[in-house]
Amino acid sequence: MFEDSLKSFLSPIASLLEDESITEIMINGPKDIWVESKGKVKKVNIQFPDEDSLRAAVNNIAQSVGRRVSDEEPRLDARLPNGYRIHAVIPPCARNGTTVAIRKFSKVQMTFKDLVKFGSITPDAAQFLDICMKLGKNVLVSGGTGSGKTTLLGVLCDRIPPGQRVIVIEDSSELSVEYEHVVFFETKAEDDQGKGEVSIQDLVKSSLRLRPDRIIVGEVRGSESLDLVQAMNTGHKGCLGTVHANTADGALIRLEALSQGAGSSLSEKALRQQICSAIDIVIQASRFADGSRRIATIAEVNGFDENGDYNVRPIYQMSRLVKKPDGTLQGQIEPTGLIPSFMDEIIDNGIPFPQGKFKSVA
After folding, report:
1. What is the DSSP string of 261-327?
2. Which pLDDT score is estimated for 33?
C-alpha cells in the first residue's frame, strides 16, 4: 500500500492504516494516539517508541513528497502516495510532541444508493439532487470538518449527464470521480526559494480557458471563490464546490466573505447579486451526536428577502431527531412543502417527479 520506506517509518500504526473502518488517525505526540471510526473518536493502545521515531516518520514523509519540516517550517501538509491526506506540526509549536492527523479516503466510489442505505438521505431527496445535476443547477455543498462534504461531492459528480467536459480542481486530490471526460488539477506549493506556487485561483482561471462544461472545486476557501462565482454566471451550468459553514444561509455568507477578500472592484451589492444568481442549490451536510453523517438541508437560493438577506428556501429539512436506546438518532430529511422555482423545468424535461413529492409530511 505504501512505499517501503514509508511502511517502515509508519510501522507502529500499520494496523490502523490497514483498518478500513478507521477514517482518521490522530497522533498527539508519540504516546497518545486516537482514531475516528464510524463517526466516533476513541483512543487506541498503540504508541510510537519515542518522539524521535515519530519525528523521523514525519521527516521521511515530507522528503518523499518533496517538502521539508524544520524549525523554520514547522508544518507539513501533504498527500501520501496512496492518496491519504496528512497534516503535521512539530515542536515547539506542538507542545504535546509531534502532532499528526492522517485522513483516509475510500477508493470505492459511493453512490446515492449507498447514502440511502446508510440513512444519510431519503430516496426522494436523492432523486431530487439527481434531478438538480441533470438540469445543470449550480450546487454549493456546505458543512463542517468531517461532515461528509467530499463524499457527497463525489456522489453528485457521478450523476453528471454524459457528453460533458468536467474539470476538477483540488488543493490535494481527494475526490473520486469516475467520468468519461474529466480533467484533474491539483495545486502546487512554492519551492524552497518561495517560487512556483500554483493556487486554486490560478487553476480556476486556467480551467476557464480549457472549454469546461462544468467546474468542480473541491474546497472553496480563498479568493478563487469570486472566480468560481463569475464562472457560474457566464454560462457554466452545473458547477460544484464545497465550503465550510454550519448552515445553508451561512454558506452564502461565507462565500461572500471569501469573495470580498479577492480584492475585486465589485461593490458589495453587485457581489451579493452575483452570488445570488450563481448558486441555485445549497446542500448542508452535518455530522450528528451519534457519529452519523447526514444531509440536514437541501435549499434553493431565490433572491433576497424583505430584509435584504439571502432568501434560502429549504426544500428538504432534517426532521426532529429522537435518541434511541442504543444511542443512535432516529429521523430523516423530509420535504418542507415548498415547491422549487424550477418545477416547470422538471415537468418540461419529462422527469417523473410529481409536485406531490414536495408535500410536507408534517
Report:
1. TT-----HHHHHHHHHHH--EEEEEEE-TTS-EEEEEEEEEEEE-TTSSEEEEEEEEE---EE-TTS
2. 97
276 vs 270: CA distance, rounded Å = 10
Contact of 101 with 26, CB cutoff 8 Å: yes
Question: pLDDT tens-digit profile of 192-224?
Answer: 777 888 988 899 889 989 999 999 998 888 888
Give the C-alpha separation, 54 to 99, whole Å.
9
User: CB count, 10 Å around CB of 361?
Assistant: 9
- The model's pTM is 0.86
User: Could you tell me the CA-to-CA distances from 101 to 24, 49, 173 in Å, in that order?
Assistant: 7, 18, 17
d(CA 91, CA 89): 7
Q: Are 252 and 300 in contact (CB under 8 A)?
A: no
Summarised one tens digit per residue, pLDDT across range 98-126 is: 999 998 876 667 899 999 998 999 999 99
Q: Retrieve residue 179's grid coordinates.
A: 467520468
| Backbone dihedral angles phi then psi of residue 176, each to the nearest 5 degrees | -105, 105
Residue that the C-alpha cell 445553508 belongs to: 248
Number of Cβ within 10 Å of residue 343's Cβ equals 13
Q: Do residues 48 and 54 touch, judged by C-beta distance below 8 A? A: yes
Domains of the chain plus CATH, in order, are: 4-103 (3.30.450.90), 112-358 (3.40.50.300)
